[in-house]
DNA sequence: AAATCGGGGAC
DNA sequence: GTCCCAGATTT
């Protein structure tokens, strides 16, 4: 048996001194906390996640608490974090854990993969970090590191490139010493997030200097290959900000699919004709008395949204629609108990923006 | 294979 | 302004 330094042992040695050892989900490192952190960290930076994680585990400290909570509470705890399907899937997965796995997360790759919101990489991250199982991950950090170390060209999100990266990630598992899988997984992510960063990686301090092909070939700056650019379409919509005599705001639950699914938001319509038609069927008041507020620009990954708020005060719902489950008057203190899109929450904040 | 799904950090 | 982040799911 050779004792030559491997990809894994080099990263592990670097990890001892330079890794992150004080992240909140590491103390204590339970399966539930690892799972929750991995879901929150999908496409979301560590710095953003930390306060959400702390608040979430304080309110819902284990699988059974999560499974027993109303979806609105889960969405409220997720409000502002984005990609709300993660919260809905997390909630559904917790219920499945109670029904099928005795209220615990299953210690099995296929069983984890079968839970909503857990894909191949997240399953590997949970198995390795929660139980020390020998499983690979392939997140943005690992993709970047592997693309450089092995000089893999092509956008890492392309299926063919991703397949090659999974093979490389799997091959490196053989070099992980027994009992070190949790640290190895953490080491890869810390290494990619801090030393082998997207901009200006610290190659002079890198433990992989003598094996990194990108460094040898002078291609560190160009790898990994950026995602192909696409034009962003722009969509416009009207947001109806209705307040009753008590200053409560009318919120509407969004449909179960699409953007901001199942969140509470302002009634939204593509144009004035649609807005007026909805208003006249639902509201006792004068549509033309609306105040025109400052537009809100919001950028998604795949399009831009320009929201034009129209505001009324002292209106009421028509009797025929007062008992609709998807419409409710909400007082300011209740806003924190509901999942509300970030730009809408901003719009409803104490400084509501001035009419123009 | 491509599109969908948020919000913000860092440049 | 840009790109992308501890990706998964749907089409």
UniProtKB/TrEMBL annotation:
InterPro entries from the UniProt entry: A/G_AdeGlyc_MutY, DNA_glycosylase, Endonuclease-III-like_CS2, HhH-GPD_domain, HhH_base_excis_C, HhH_motif, MIG/MutY, MutY_C
Stretches assigned to the HhH-GPD domain: 40-194
Annotated GO MF terms: 4 iron, 4 sulfur cluster binding; 8-oxo-7,8-dihydroguanine DNA N-glycosylase activity; adenine/guanine mispair binding; metal ion binding; oxidized purine DNA binding; purine-specific mismatch base pair DNA N-glycosylase activity
Matches recorded under CDD domains: ENDO3c, NUDIX_DNA_Glycosylase_C-MutY
Keyword DNA damage among record annotations: yes
Enzyme nomenclature, EC number: 3.2.2.31
GO terms of biological process kind: base-excision repair; mismatch repair
Co-factor(s): [4Fe-4S] cluster
The organism's place on the tree of life at top rank: Bacteria
Enzyme class at the top of the EC tree: hydrolase
A Pfam entry, by short name: HhH-GPD
Cofactor binding note: Binds 1 [4Fe-4S] cluster.
rRNA processing listed as a keyword: no
Keywords recorded for this protein, A-Z: 4Fe-4S, DNA damage, DNA repair, Glycosidase, Hydrolase, Iron, Iron-sulfur, Metal-binding
Enzymatic reactions: Hydrolyzes free adenine bases from 7,8-dihydro-8-oxoguanine:adenine mismatched double-stranded DNA, leaving an apurinic site
Entry function: Adenine glycosylase active on G-A mispairs. MutY also corrects error-prone DNA synthesis past GO lesions which are due to the oxidatively damaged form of guanine: 7,8-dihydro-8-oxoguanine (8-oxo-dGTP).
Family as reported in the entry's similarity comment: Belongs to the Nth/MutY family.
Protein name per UniProt: Adenine DNA glycosylase
Gene name for this UniProt entry: mutY
């Amino acid at each position: 048996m050779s004792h030559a330094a491997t990809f894994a042992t080099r990263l592990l040695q670097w990890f001892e001194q330079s890794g992150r050892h004080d992240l909140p989900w590491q103390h204590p490192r339970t399966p539930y906390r690892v799972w929750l952190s991995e879901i929150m960290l999908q496409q979301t930076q560590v710095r953003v996640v930390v306060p959400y994680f702390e608040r979430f585990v304080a309110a819902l400290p284990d699988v059974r608490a999560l499974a027993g909570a109303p979806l609105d509470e889960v969405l409220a705890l997720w409000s502002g974090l984005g990609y709300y399907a993660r919260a809905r899937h997390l909630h559904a997965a917790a219920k499945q854990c109670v029904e099928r796995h005795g209220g615990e997360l299953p210690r099995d790759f296929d069983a984890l993969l079968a839970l909503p919101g857990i894909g191949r990489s997240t399953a590997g991250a949970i198995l390795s970090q929660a139980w020390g199982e020998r499983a690979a991950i392939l997140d943005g950090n690992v993709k970047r590191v592997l693309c450089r170390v092995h000089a893999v060209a092509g956008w890492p999100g392309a299926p063919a490139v991703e397949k090659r990266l999974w093979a490389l990630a799997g091959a490196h598992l053989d070099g992980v010493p027994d009992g070190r899988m949790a640290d190895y997984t953490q080491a890869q992510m810390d290494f990619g997030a801090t030393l082998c960063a997207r901009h200006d990686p610290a190659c002079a301090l890198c433990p992989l200097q003598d094996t990194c092909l990108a460094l040898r070939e002078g291609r560190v700056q160009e790898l990994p290959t950026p995602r192909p650019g696409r034009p962003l379409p722009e969509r416009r919509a009207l947001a109806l900000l209705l307040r009753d005599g008590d200053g409560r705001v009318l919120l509407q639950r969004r449909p179960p699919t699409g953007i901001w699914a199942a969140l509470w938001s302002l009634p939204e319509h593509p144009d004035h004709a649609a807005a007026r038609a909805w208003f006249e069927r639902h509201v006792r008041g004068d549509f033309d008395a609306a105040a025109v507020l400052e537009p809100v620009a919001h950028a998604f990954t795949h399009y831009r949204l320009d929201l034009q708020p129209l505001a009324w005060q002292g209106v009421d719902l028509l009797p025929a629609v007062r008992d609709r489950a998807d419409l409710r008057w909400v007082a300011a203190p209740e806003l924190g108990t509901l999942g509300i899109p970030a730009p809408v929450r901003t719009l409803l904040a104490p400084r509501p923006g001035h009419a123009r």
